[in-house]
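Two folds, back to back.
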Amino acid sequence: CETCSKEEAKYRCPRCMKYSCSLLCVKKHKLALSCNGVRNKTAFVAVNEFTDLNLLSDYRFLEDVGRTADAAARHCIVHSPATKRLLYCLRNKARGCNIELKTLPVGFTKRRENSTTFNSMENKFYWHLKLIFPHCHAEYTLKGVPDDKTLADILKPYIDPVESDPVVCQRLKIYTASPQSDVRILMKIENRNRNSVRYNELDASRSLLDNLKGKVIIEYPTLFVVLKTLKNDMVVLGQDGSEPAENSEGESSSLSSVEEGEIRDGS
């Protein structure tokens, strides 16, 4: 068993191919690795390893996609006036907070996942939020995050060495072992070319709402938590929205000059 290293393994995860001995270890490995246990039907297969079974799997996958898209298009709730009013209300309330919220067409994964709501009595957003920790290849999804909660408080259950969950702490030990001053929170700038991906740096001491003001959000915010002491491939624009300076070799400055918000993006 690759989780407890005590018992003989009986199960193998179809997703990450990890061996487990019991249901408890299966659940632990899913939590630690953010694994859903579902086989990745779109995983890369080299040409010399491609078999008739892979071809059959691809064919069935395309059939499933067609059925799902057709079912979504026919679903009465999706096209109901109540659903349309809800989306209009969310976009309108976000616009009132100086946030440009965009929603995707029916069938897109982010549209299906999004659980963001607006409480009219409290005049407050409860956001669907995704946290990505690229140095550990981990991501977590949060639901119902109030917009007045600071980013520092949102991250505490994940990177705080005292308050974080032991399993999560072990998974994100690179972050928990680093000083809080090394942690940077980035959000992708939307509506840019794919070969010119850039990020805004957010202020951990300010609320989620304050950080989202003036930003374009597609469905829900996705925050990237990085460490400035480690090499990164993400270009952060300056506070004035200008491109980062380049050195004599034509490359962006290294992460050490964090005050200038310069990290290079390879995508």
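---
second:
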Amino acid sequence: AGDGGGPVPGDGTDPPAPERALFPPTFSLSEIKNKQRRHFMFLRWKQQQRKEKLALKKKRRKEREALGDKAPPKAIPKTIENQRVYDETTVDPNDEEVAFDEATDEFAPYFNRQTVPKILITTSDRPRGRTVRFCEQLATVIPNSHVYYRRGLALKRIIPQCIARDFTDLIVINEDRKIPNGLVLSHLPDGPTAHFRMSSVRLRKEIKRKGKDPTEHVPEVILNNFTTRLGHSIGRMFAALFPHDPQFIGRQVATFHNQRDYIFFRFHRYIFKSEKKVGIQELGPRFTLKLRSLQKGTFDSKFGEYEWIHKRREMDTSRRKFHL
């Protein structure tokens, strides 16, 4: 007999059990003491987060499609780049003072087509195999460049010889523990000289899905996000390494992309698949540069006058402050 007409277990009238949440609001992964179990639950939590995010994204997209032209504009996500602290040296394209300075600086003969780039690439003393291969591959990227392996010869003796032989730039690749870790770029004959820290070097054989070796065509050059006066100087240094008129038939492009004061170099070959789609293949090598100092004149480690030096403790106080 029943006790008041309530549902009897097993008679098919049991109330449905409430769905148990996968992760209760008070759930904390740190409470799980077993490491493997904690890791497994963390992966499940991440998967749940991705599903919720994707569902929300689909819901918003359907709402925008339903509203049509009345849909509100998309919100711009906050990034370190668009939250950047304003730099008073940011260049205005219409600034007459900047235009005058660029017309009279050390790179003016190149941009006025009075000189043709001729580059000497050299290394530190007794370079190892990886640095040697990197220099050889860099020479195939920069037209009219020559590799010279110096054997104990000081840079102060190399520079006058370069000037006498009409070289316009000198590139020195330094290494540490058999790995390239520094680049010195000196514009001849009057400077300036830039010192970079080099990282993330990848040779051609280390790049996945790479294209065939580059041809001898003069590549196009892309300079991205060099917005300050200092950035303009660095960008003009890189531009002066390449001849003026690219040979578009080669479909090769060298890119110097500045992001958060890190300069990423990539070398690609492109092909137009249609009017809207472009396919690219990376040819290599690739590397990343970080400016350490900019020095007036040619290389002089003792008595050189510096225009700019990166001081970490003074300049890296804010993640949103950039100098290039």
